[in-house]
Amino acid sequence: MSNDAIVMLKNDHKEIRGVFRDFEAAGDNATKRKGKLVDKMIELLTVHTYLENEVMYPRVRALLPDLEDDVLESYEEHHVADVLVMELSTMTPDDERFDAKTTVLMENVKHHMDEEEQDWFPKVRDGLGRKMLQEIGAELIAAKKTAPTRPSQPSALKKTIDAVIA
Ligand SMILES: [Fe+2]
Ligand SMILES: [Fe+2]
To answer: Residue 131 pLDDT more than 90?
Structure first.
C-alpha cells in the first residue's frame, strides 16, 4: 500500500465514486439498499473530509501559500457536503427528499473530487515532492485510526466548525 498522501486520497475518491455509481444503479424501489449505500457514503465522506480538513489542507496551506485560495474554496465545498451529509444522516430512505438530497450531494462531491484530481493534486505534487507527500501520508494513516465515521461524533462536529471559523 502506498503511503503517498495524494495516492491515498485518490483511493478514497475511487471508493466514494464506486458507492455513488451503486446508488445511481440501484433503481427507484431499492429503498433498503439505497439506505445502506447512503450510510456507506456518510461514513466514507465523514472520514475523508476529516482527513483533508485536519491534515492535508492545513499542511498544504502552510507549505504552499500560493495554493491558499484553492484550500479556502475546498473548505467551503466540504462545508456544503457536511451540511447535506448531516441532514441525510437524520433521514430515512422513504423520505420524499432522500433521493433528491443524495443526488445533490453526489453532484457536489463529484465536482469537488474532479477539481482536486485534475487541478489541485497536480499542483500539490509539483510543489511538495515525493518525500513530503510521504510524510503527510504517514500523518493521514495515523489520523485515519481515530477519524470520526458519523457526522454527529464530536471530532466531526469540531472539524465542521473549524472549517467555517478558521
Ligand atoms: Fe476535498
Ligand atoms: Fe478529496
So the answer is: yes
